[in-house]
Structure formats: structure tokens, C-alpha cells
Amino acid sequence: VVVFSVRGVTDDSKTNACLTEKRTLATAAEAYYAKTTPSAYPANVAALETAGLIQDATQLLGSGYSINATTGKITGTCPAP
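The structure assignment produced for this chain is given below.
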């Protein structure tokens, strides 16, 4: 009988999913920048949803996401493993 732990696998998948989510938001912020005239980053994640660049901001794994209006950098907190 072999017994193994999947806890580390689950923790890693949550972390990876959150990092992917941040990259997706960064891509959407860049698309928003390219789409607007004059070019500007969105004020918040909700603006990405309004612009049709993401589907549902309430379904994000992380929390407290914000977008730097000058650089477009995404910050936020991933769920605890």
C-alpha cells in the first residue's frame, strides 16, 4: 500500500492559478491601454469588466486587486494555501 500527500500539489495549483490570474489582468490592462484614446490604464479591475476585457471580476481567486494608473502594474493578494 502506497500513501502520498496531495496537499503540496493543491497549494501549488492555487498559487499558480493566482499568478495566471494576475498575468491575465495585466494583459487586459494593456489591451485597455491600447483601446482607449488618449491611452490610459484602467482605474480599477471593474473597468476591465465594463470594457469587456474580462468576464466576471467577482470570480477572481485573489482579492484586493488594483491597477497602477501610471504603469498598469497589477497588485493583489492570493488566497492562502
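Interim note for the steering committee: The longest strand covers residues 63-67. The chain has a mean pLDDT of 86.
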